[in-house]
Sequence to fold (202 residues):
Amino acid sequence: GLKDFAILSDGTVYKNPKFFRSLETKLAKEQRKLSRRKIQALKDGRKLSESKNYQKQRIKVANIHETIKNKRTDYLHKISTEIVKNHDIIGIEDLLVKNMMLNRKLAKSISEVSWAEFRTMLEYKAKWYGKEIIAVARNFPSSQLCSGCGYQNKAVKNLAVRKWECPECHAHHDRDTNASINLNQEALRILTSRTVGTTELA
Ligand SMILES: [Zn+2]
Fold:
């Protein structure tokens, strides 16, 4: 999401650092300035390659892009290493874009690219450290299931629902924390069924 980058079933919340947002605001501002300079150059009948103001601004915009990219990569490295080092089994949702697509208006380029990169980092670091990444099936309704009793609440499908009460067991849920607990349980179930399968073969 935008506010939180990742939520773990043990309650750990990795927030999206505030500097992403402030840098994005800055980027948007400088990009607007760049378009104004382009329009001005064209009006004056100058080629963009010969317009010093435009070129200066173009470099400024490119530098902000670079800063965002570097900071984002640093952050993703930090948390992926932390997660892989501290957990033996890591269950993740096997979807990168579903929520983002639904959330198109909110989705920022940063979070979209970050998820793909983050998953790649988790996967190769898990290999380094001998840990297991389990991707839970795309259609597993992680957000809709009550992590307490298993009741499926279809009303939670709507992304606007951030908190809900289970109509069956009356447990109170935070959308993302509940989903992360369900993912954890499902990952363990997948792992157990795999292990049973291997034992039977042996
Ligand atoms: Zn329940």
Observations:
- The CA atoms of residues 15 and 79 lie 10 Å apart.
- Residues 146, 148-149, 151, 166, 168-169, 171 surround zinc ion (CB under 6 Å).
- The longest strand covers residues 89-93.
- The chain has a mean pLDDT of 87.
